[in-house]
């Protein structure tokens, strides 16, 4: 199955380079390019591509604003946002307006191709370097759920104590000593916390705590 792709990027060299790379893929056909929003809207209306790849920083305009307009015209349109800024907050902003994917320009060709095919097939793409857990938490915040629906509400009192010690940098041995429990019990709580919060690692927990302004203050 092949996909028709439209490219929207104000950097001509990058756009033409990506087009040349996609031309070598038998299942991907670039049906047009655009450098700015008006041109992009006309291109998409004329070619009706399966996927539109949009640069987040589109010159003086915003790629996110263009994405919003393209989706207003056709709510089922599939969009992949490309950016030099690879962080959860910008990814959440793109997904909030309706884009199905967010990828980084510094990713490898294979990863970008995977992003293109994933989104063209109607599935959500977020780079593995970003935490989907944190992206979803940013989305909840942007939609106004905020602290009232904090994911930490899912934790028991003991799990919250372990969570606080984890994000403070506590090791298993330290947490066990602080709470007077065994190492195995600490690991059990850690596993349950990660499962309940749909997180993958302690780093995800630290980023969540940072967003909720729960990280302990440090002094020099």
Provide the descriptors you would attach to this structure in a database record.
10 helices; alpha/beta; Arc Repressor Mutant, subunit A; 5-stranded parallel β-sheet; Rossmann fold; 50% helix; 220 residues; two-stranded antiparallel ribbon
Individual helix count: 10
Low-pLDDT segments, ≥5 res? none
CATH architecture of the largest domain: 3-Layer(aba) Sandwich
- State the helical fraction: 40-55%
Under CATH, the topology of the largest domain can be stated as Rossmann fold
Tally of individual domains: 2
Biggest sheet, spatial arrangement of strands: 2-1-3-6-7
**Cα distance, first to last residue?**
59 Å
Compute the gyration radius: what is it? 21 Å
What class would the helix/strand composition place it in?
Answer: alpha/beta
N-to-C SSE string, H for helix and E for strand: EHEHEEEHEHEHHHHHH
Number of strands: 7
Q: What is the overall silhouette?
A: elongated
CATH superfamily of the largest domain: Response regulator
Can you walk through the features of this model?
The protein is of the alpha/beta class. The protein has two domains: 128 residues, Response regulator (Rossmann fold); 63 residues, Winged helix-like DNA-binding domain superfamily/Winged helix DNA-binding domain (Arc Repressor Mutant, subunit A, Orthogonal Bundle), CATH 1.10.10. It is 50% helix and 14% strand. The strands form two sheets. It has a five-stranded parallel beta sheet, sandwiched between helices. A two-stranded antiparallel ribbon has the order 4-5. A hairpin with a 2-residue loop joins strand 4 and strand 5. The protein is elongated and about 65 Å long. The mean pLDDT is 86.
